[in-house]
Amino acid sequence: MEPELGQPLIIDNRIGAAGAIGAANVARSPADGYSVLFGGVGTNVVLPMTQPSLDYSPDRDFLPVGQICNIDYVLVVAASSPDRMLADLIARARARPNSLSYMSTGSMGPLHVAIEYLSQQAGARMTRVPYKGESPAFADLIENRLDVAVMTVPFTRPYIKDGKLRALATISGQRSAAMPELPTVAELGYPGYAVPIWNGLFVPVGTPAPAISRLSSAMLGVVRQPEIRERARRQLL
After folding, report:
1. Mapping DSSP to helix (H, G, I), strand (E, B) and coil, where does residue 231 land?
2. In Å, how far are 16, 69, 85, 89, 124 from 96, measured between CA atoms?
3. If DSSP codes are grouped into helix, strand and coil, which group holds residue 191?
4. HSE on the CB side for 201, CA within 13 Å?
């Protein structure tokens, strides 16, 4: 977007609290078009429903600029795990409530909700283990110190090909284009289950309409470029 806007863009990663820290920071920023949130279903849909004490409200504090992408997440276990299929994992979780552990990158965030949603539908209970990201959880997962994780397709696919991880299902409403052979959770006996993960840009309420229009135009101009779409496809799939 820098060439489109004629000025540099600074990426300021404010990690933590499943994205709530970064979102709250943008919500408190001046509404001048120079502070933009790269948010999504977690910061703008899930967290407001699961954490009433948030320092911001998407409806009150943000205006949308536009959607950028969808990201596929999959349920994965170590290749040495006894769980060959999702049914195996659920059976073990039912037989030994709270003895199996799962990875989450933020309390009440979308990945936390994804597993609890599945557990509720399956009548099973597992224990959440918080991590700061996929990389820290990976070591525990392949050593079977962690039983299951919800991770992105781009991160997991090389390890699945190398035989270090096993994918059980995708949490989206449809199969991943990168793993068309992998069924959805809904296809494996849980109709209606879907946790779509999307991302986009948002600005503080009060941002002038011309600034929003310019940001939106720059964003759309970039995501519509064939070379950018191909690069994103390779990175996201």
Report:
1. helix
2. 31, 38, 17, 11, 9
3. coil
4. 21
Structure token pair of residue 31: 């509404």
CA 56 – CA 231 distance, rounded (Å): 33
User: Rounded mean pLDDT of 79-84?
Assistant: 97
DSSP, collapsed to helix, strand or coil, labels residue 29 as coil
What's at 165, amino acid-wise? L
Closest Cα to residue 195, out of 36, 51, 45, 35? 45
Report which secondary-structure segment, H or E, holds 97: none
Is 138 in contact with 44 (CB distance < 8 Å)?
no
In angstroms, the CA 187 to CA 11 distance is: 38
Closest residue by Cα to residue 128 from 142, 143, 140, 111: 111
Burial of 158 (0-12, 13-18, 19+ CB in 10 A): exposed
What confidence category does residue 105 fall into, taking pLDDT thresholds of 50, 70 and 90? confident
Helices 134-142 + 153-161 axis angle, to 10 = 30
- Rounded Cα gap, residues 33 and 222, in angstroms: 18
The Cα 202–Cα 178 span in angstroms is 28
**Token pair for 66:** 């536009």
Higher pLDDT, 17 or 31: 31
